[in-house]
Amino acid sequence: MYDIVIGLEIHVEMKTKTKLFCGCSTEFGAAPNTQVCPVCLGLPGTLPQVNKEAISLAIRAGGVFGSTIQPISQFSRKNYMYPDLPKAYQITQYQEPICIGGGIEVMREGERVMIRLERIHMEEDPGKLMHPEYEFFSLADYNRSGIPLIEIVTKPDLRSPEEAVEFLKALRTQLEFAGISDCRMEQGSLRCDANISLKEPGTEILGTRVEIKNINSFREVQKALEKEVKRQSDLLRFGEGEKIVQETRKWDTGKGRTISMRSKEDAEDYRFFDDPDLPVIQLTQGQIEAAQADLPTETAIQRRERFQMSYGLSEEEATKLTEDAVLARLMDQAGEGHSDPRKVATWILTEGLCLYRSGEGFRVDASTLLVLLETVESGGLSHSAAKQVFESLWKIGGTVDDTIQVLGLQQNSDQDELTDLIAKIVAENPQAIAEIRAGNGKAFGFLMGAVMKETKGTANPKIAKALIEAELKR
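User: That's the sequence. What structure does it adopt?
Assistant: Structure tokens below.
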């Protein structure tokens, strides 16, 4: 058994409208190579100009994580040649980053542990390479080239793949709350490189460090780290530790394994030097304070604990709601306006979360959700009908009352009409009646389901249940 040592390098695209050194759009999803100009294509004779909003967002990130903001920072050139880097160097920060230190708390064996940050620095994103299947060429899209990034580098404080994922989720939530990034991993606006090594228990001597590049989902981060732990531990156990070399590996999702890409470069391999085209960034205290105005004061752990105490939620429920800033804000807005916040949480985590995962954002606001729940509780709408109303509100908007009218889902409490319908259903299902009288409770649910099906979910469930019971006593 070996101790696991993990450090992360997280690349976060900042939420700016234009790129870091030019005026090209950062909007996602445009046709390839349509959001480019001579500056972000690295053409000769062009000069970069720093995006002030990007600097402001980087300062906010430092404030969120308790980093020290450097009053003086500097851009450097990191020299390497890849097809997705048209200048053959990347503009980044090396010796003088904009933020140093800071940290994020995670839970380890029931105790809070601070995962320290080494630094947060700004840099430009390279372009994107696409590799068509069964072809012998790659395609380059430079729309992403020059999008402003912050790179958040941790110290090697993480001790398990699960802890690394918890850290990433806490980091994402705080970035979203502060308005720094949308952190959409499926769009590449949050990407992670993981450095991992194993060491003998009780020693401070770290093993050989291996880097795993560009993992773009929490699930894949955990799987990649688990597989790399197994690979390294197997080599060490069988006396083949020399095969663990300092290198960069990529995570192959399909094959479920890490694959060697290249030997790991050291800083001297990149020949860093100050960018002669960009001035030193000099910040005043007033600029720092302005950029950090209205920062969220709660950490991810504090928010989760508050949701448990204030709303009576389980740890699992509170965790799911607070891992996402949109869901957390919705729960706060709707939960404070309802007498039973657990009902709000249940609806968000069932009906809401199912649609939210479609990737279009949460499209029903807190006030509309509260009206829908109050309509169900007052007997104006059955739960099954409320699901239909919710889906319609999600797709086309509108008010709860108007949607109920359009869909014809007003709750049916007409006892005469329901009595005739239930008598018909009971008569047509003698086997279910026999099972109910034999003590089979599921058969009663079958009859309720038949009533709801016939009324398209509009029957008042309390009245329907009472009428079925009355019919069975005859």
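Residues 415-472 form a domain with the Arc Repressor Mutant, subunit A fold (CATH 1.10.10.410).
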